[in-house]
């Protein structure tokens, strides 16, 4: 098979690809350690000592041993030890300490930027038309490449979240360093994970059949991937397996720096003699792969498509969708027999007054401030939507929309012709947590690194800072990365502290759009 054949296959696909990313993906760009090296960093003896004493090279069993050592050493620390005092309430099981240490290690590690030689390659990756990412990686490198995608952590979120629509999403099935307890690390974690493999396969099977799946950063012999694929194959008979033809692409890294990309068809041997047809790609650089994937094009971004699909989902499953749904009168349909289906979100020119903006939620306003994708009419938001939302809370952004209607000063606001008289919030209104003076003088870069184990504290700290204009894109990126955790589908702890995140968005709106 030639590269042109591969491009033609991808170009003709009806659905955008999903990327399935493994540890080799991040290692390629950030030189992150492999699993064995990572465990060695926290072990008390040479890794071979565990292999020989356990009589196995199963790294999940080695992780269990090291977790037990870390737990024992942690509780042996003096009671006045700062780490012990800060973490002892969170050390709820035998692997908690090791997971916390690994998470902090990875957070610091992945703050580094990739080598400049990958700039063009990563720019190409971030512009690809893909529908989502599935990954077993704990780091957040893929989120950095697709900051507008929603993130779901662990099997439970993937299996039970009602907001998943399979567009513009990242599924971190082995957990995330931002939530240390979610990491699939020890032998017990993997046993629990494998028990749910059948449920995970049922969730993924539609994606695998309807989308090209591109595996990057895995060996074709990777046990985790084979286990997941085996669970999917068990849901299909041999005829249905044929539906996966031209849908599975395995990208294998070639150590030879001079090797050109090779493409071939390959039959993966699964259990019970079943074969799985895949397309194997061998390459030293990922850029040629991304160039092939770039042949799939569409006019609308994944995050916008996700927004549309989510709106339909909420309408269909809502008991009272009347605030979001406008039904064209029968007489108007009968007057035009050519009408089949009409859909509109945001500003709808003809039916705007009928649809109205009263159905918008605070979350919709927050999303528009951060992602700038609402396309709302500012005057309508200011006169109808925001006054209603502010009856429940004063922390609703407003300055972006004031700017859009030409209100650029205190006098403009006092003399506005729209009848606006809402309280204007300023920097002190967003500062709601006690920090020492030293913290308040940090740069944004240092503030973002200050509480890796408690992101909500970073959210609470930032409004105290004096930011330059060049800090705003970085702040926007931080808010984008954490939007899902605090306001959409995060864990209970994230939602508990969501008020700090909402105030941070209000601060961002004030800092970016308010007059001096």
Describe the structure.
With 516 residues, the protein is α/β, with parallel strands linked by helices. It has helices spanning 3-11, 23-30, 35-42, 47-54, 59-75, 82-87, 96-109, 119-126, 141-145, 154-160, 187-195, 197-210, 223-233, 238-241, 287-293, 302-317, 330-335, 352-355, 362-371, 378-389, 399-404, 410-414, 437-440, 444-448, 455-461, 472-488, 492-496, 498-513, and strands at residues 18-21, 132-135, 150-153, 169-172, 213-216, 248-253, 262-269, 275-283. The protein has an eight-stranded mixed beta sheet. Mean pLDDT is 85; it is low at 346-356.
CATH architecture classification of the largest domain? 3-Layer(aba) Sandwich
- What top-tier CATH class of the largest domain fits best? Alpha Beta
What is the radius of gyration computed over CA atoms, rounded to a whole number of angstroms? 25 Å
Trace the largest sheet across and list its strands. 3-4-2-1-5-6-8-7
Mean pLDDT: 85
**Gross morphology:** globular
- Rounded to the nearest angstrom, the distance between the terminal CA atoms is 62 Å
């Amino acid at each position: 098979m030639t590269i042109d054949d591969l491009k033609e296959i991808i170009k003709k696909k009806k659905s955008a690809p999903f990327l399935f990313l493994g540890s080799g993906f991040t290692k390629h760009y950030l030189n992150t350690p492999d699993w064995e090296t990572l465990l060695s960093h926290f072990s008390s003896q040479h890794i071979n000592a565990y292999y020989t004493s356990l009589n196995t090279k199963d790294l999940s069993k080695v992780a269990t041993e090291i977790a037990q050592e870390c737990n024992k050493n942690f509780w042996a620390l003096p009671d006045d030890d700062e780490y012990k005092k800060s973490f002892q309430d969170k050390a709820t099981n035998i692997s908690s300490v090791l997971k916390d240490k690994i998470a902090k290690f990875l957070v610091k590690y992945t703050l580094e930027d990739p080598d400049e030689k990958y700039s063009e390659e990563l720019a190409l990756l971030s512009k690809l038309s893909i529908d989502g990412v599935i990954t077993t990686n704990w780091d957040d490198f893929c989120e950095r490449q697709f900051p507008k995608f929603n993130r779901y952590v662990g099997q439970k979120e993937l299996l039970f979240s009602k907001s998943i629509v399979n567009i513009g999403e990242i599924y971190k099935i082995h957990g995330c360093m931002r939530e240390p307890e979610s990491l699939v690390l020890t032998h017990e974690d993997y046993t629990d994970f494998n028990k749910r493999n059948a449920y995970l396969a049922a969730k993924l099977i539609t994606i695998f059949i309807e989308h090209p799946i591109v595996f990057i950063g895995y060996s074709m012999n990777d046990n985790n991937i084979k286990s997941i694929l085996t669970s999917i194959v068990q849901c299909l008979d041999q005829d249905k397996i044929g539906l996966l033809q031209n849908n599975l692409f395995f990208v294998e890294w070639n150590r030879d720096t001079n090797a050109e990309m090779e493409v071939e068809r390959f039959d993966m041997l699964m259990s019970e003699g079943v074969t799985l047809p895949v397309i194997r790609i061998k390459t030293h650089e990922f850029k040629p792969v991304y160039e092939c994937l770039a042949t799939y094009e569409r006019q609308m971004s994944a995050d916008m498509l996700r927004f549309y699909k989510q709106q339909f989902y909420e309408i269909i499953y809502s008991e009272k969708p009347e605030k979001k749904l406008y039904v064209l009168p029968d007489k108007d349909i009968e007057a035009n027999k050519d009408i089949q289906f009409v859909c509109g979100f945001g500003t709808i020119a003809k039916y705007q007054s009928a649809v109205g903006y009263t159905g918008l939620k605070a979350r919709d306003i927050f999303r528009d401030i951060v992602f700038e994708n609402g396309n709302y009419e500012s005057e309508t938001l200011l006169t109808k939507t925001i006054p209603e939302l502010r009856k429940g809370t004063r922390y609703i952004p407003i300055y972006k929309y004031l700017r859009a209607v030409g209100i650029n000063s205190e006098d403009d606001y006092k003399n506005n012709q729209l009848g606006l008289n809402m309280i204007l919030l300023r920097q002190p209104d967003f500062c709601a947590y006690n920090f020492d003076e030293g913290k308040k003088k940090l740069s944004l870069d240092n503030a973002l690194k200050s509480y890796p184990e408690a992101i909500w504290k970073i959210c609470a700290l930032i409004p105290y800072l004096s930011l330059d204009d060049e800090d705003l894109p970085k702040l926007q990126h931080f808010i984008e990365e954490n939007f899902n955790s605090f306001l959409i589908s995060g864990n209970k702890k994230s939602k508990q502290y969501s008020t700090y995140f909402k105030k941070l968005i209000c601060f961002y709106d004030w800092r970016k759009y308010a007059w001096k």
